[in-house]
Fold:
Amino acid sequence: MSARLQRCWHLTQFLLAQALHQRVGWLLATVALAVLAGAGALRGFNLGTEEPRFFTQLALLSLLLSGAFVAAFVGPALFCEGLATRTIPTLLMHGARRSEVVIGLLIALWTLLGWLVLLHAGTLAGVLIAYGHAPELAPALRAVASGFGPLLIVGAGSILAAMLLGRAVLSTAATLALACAGQLAPVIAFAQVRSSGVAQMGWTALEWLVPNFAVFETASPWAAATYAVSYASLYGCAAAFFFARREL
Amino acid sequence: MVAPQPFSLRAVNFERSTLVWVLGLLLAGGMALNRMERALTSAPLTETGDGLEAFFAATGGASTLAADWLWIRTNLAWENRDEAGVRALLRLTLAAAPQSAYFRFNAARMLAYDMPLWRIARNPDAPRAVHDAWRLGGADEAIGLVLENAGDDAGRWLEAANLTLYARRDRMAAGELFGFTAMLPGAPWHAGRIHAQLLVEQGREAEALAWLRHWLPRLPENDPAAQRQLVIGRLAALEFELWSRGEPL
Amino acid sequence: MTSPTPVAAVSFAAVTKDYVTDWRGQRWRALDQVSFAVPVGALCAVVGPNGSGKSTVLKLGSGLTRASSGQCLVNGRTPAVAQADGQIGYLAEDYMVPAFFTGRDLLMRLAGVAGLNLPRASETAARLLATVGLQESGNRRVGDCSKGMRQRLGLAQALIGEPQLLLLDEPAAGLDPRAVENLTGIIRAQRDSGRTVVLTSHFLPQVEELCDHFVLLGRGRVLFTGSAAEVRQRGGLSQLYLEAVAI
Structure:
């Protein structure tokens, strides 16, 4: 393993330990319980053959909501607290490059979000098997896995927001706004088409800056994964570019 | 005037030109990804119409979640026999998920079977003609809902045929609808058999025989659902029936 | 034959540092044409009132920030290069050691980031804990340690990789006299082992006793730089400070 990879590995471990310290364990447990309780409540309705789909949608909703909140709160907290407590300058003084710190932050946050996806997949699998929908397991798990795409982008967006805005509250608000805007991307496209002049230029810029989460509904898994990785990389590169030029 | 300290709330800690570069990078990358996005997503909102459907289409993936939530609300209203509430919520649910056959068919069944029964139960002493008008009105509304932009969707036409048969109780029209459905791509095999059965019930054995003769070559031999042997048996029975009556075969 | 000119451990030549302070691009000058040199093996104190630029001097020396103009060198090389070579140890002002790590765990993780493998990181952590007198408390959570212990842990992390230059930003801030005494002993031992130490402080009597070289800053400018003997000639550090700052 090259020295740089080894450094990134240790850096990510360090930052992940910090992320876990944000009491995310409680959040994960609460989310899993919410999905279980929600599935139990849905059993009260006569949903027939649609029941597994309802369970899947419930898990997906829970994943997207909790994931957006985890990204919005943990990402900026990692960076802003890292600056406030001088942890990040200290890491830099031990040989970490600024780009490696950004990569470490991204991987730590994505790991956390990945655990959230696994937690939802596991909970949903348990619910489906318990209620006799085992044959529907594969499509349901695929649907939940597709939720990782938006979270990957929102996670990278939260780190970028933290770099640009430098304050946890503002960055959290910006990340939640990005998560909403990604969901409402068709509105931006609509406004872009309907407007003209300077307003149209503004909407076009916003359309380019904001991802469209509808892609994860319609595209094939590989295309959706490529799209998610591309957008997340774009945000990550912008964050690394900015951090390399920012005063500490 | 005292200059602000660095790292105060007013500090920005970077050159403005850096921000311009970052924005440029994001816009250039976003423009490239926008092309990919357009290739991967369905028609833009402007092409999907206005009104409620456009509103829900704007919410992207959230519309499915909204539809699920609205459906649960519909179920609660249904349990309370709140006709106005169910009707409004059904409209919202279908606007949020216009492609969902499950929501559309169940909405149609509520309109065709449940709502007329609720009205009749509330007004048991109303004249029979009024009861019939409610039943027919509900059935027609349901059939209209099912056939809204149905195109050649065999599932929708089959549901319309079922509603015509069981809610509207119009066996003749239902027979025609089953026959039409049977010819659509992807239609279930039983639609053709029901069409023949309804023709027989109306005393149109010769037409039924002609239909089954026309229909038989389409039935695959290796698909149990096609029930080819059953159709051959019915053909033989019809031929015998007509022969015994001395009618031309 | 002439002997080569000795390279200073840290040298600033007409260094100016401006920070951008608002969205209109307004700037605040933290350092203005600052020039001084710290000899190799010296224990140097950078003193001055709040906002005089002490922390900026250390950030420039550590390579964490870049000068707007002028030249800053560490052992004859740019700070970024010296830092990449592991020649600089840095203790940031208000460094808050993550509370959930144990002291040993923190040092091992930082040693890992610095490129040491697990056995070497473990050996380094044990040695540094002993250096700062925390060998008994290495397995305690940092959150359960006193402020003095945490500051010693902060100093220990700066010693990972055996740097030739130690930059300590307010290492004694917030410590009680006994903890200050403790820390002072460790810093003196580092100087005695051949390292160059540059620290900032507001404890003038302590740094006058501890250090052998001084840089006095005021409003981003060097008001005085010289050895302990020169400070004594001018009536002591406190006297010098009060005179210089009053100007």
The mean pLDDT of chain B is 86.
